[in-house]
Design brief:
Number of helices: 2
Radius of gyration: 14 Å
Distance between the termini: 33 Å
Helix content: 25-40%
Largest sheet: 4 strands, antiparallel
Order of helices and strands: EHEEHE
Structural class: alpha+beta
Strand order of the largest sheet: 2-3-1-4
């Protein structure tokens, strides 16, 4: 059975979780966190996402953001993930993916943070 289409509404905040492959580390030193945060800021602006909060853990990332357009969050995460993986692969002479593939949801878990009254 195919999964239900994800509903992404512009202007509605999202909680995104991006995990390392097999839940392994995706940050190896302070400079990795700094590079990721620099790229996060650049990509959020470039793709129209207002970043409200973040939490960088050793093996995953939590982001709270509000996209301007329905495709803003996905495009931002794609660009951010690609740039960070290229940086890690160059820095640590490695190859391949860094992020977990969730066959049901793609690479990033999206969850709406709307509150109900």
């Amino acid at each position: 059975m195919p999964r239900r289409a994800r509903v992404l509404i512009p202007g509605v905040p999202l909680h995104l979780i991006h995990r390392g492959k097999n839940r392994s580390a995706c940050f190896f030193g302070d400079h990795d966190y700094r590079f990721f945060l620099e790229q996060l800021g650049e990509q959020a602006v470039a793709h129209g996402c207002a970043l409200h909060a973040y939490c960088l853990m050793t093996n995953h990332v939590h982001l709270l953001l509000t996209p301007e357009r329905a495709d803003s969050a996905g495009k931002m995460m794609k660009a951010l993930g690609e740039r960070y993986v290229q940086y890690v692969n160059r820095s640590y002479q490695r190859s391949g993916t860094l992020w977990e593939e969730n066959r049901n949801r793609g690479q990033t878990t999206f969850s709406s943070t709307r509150s109900t009254i």
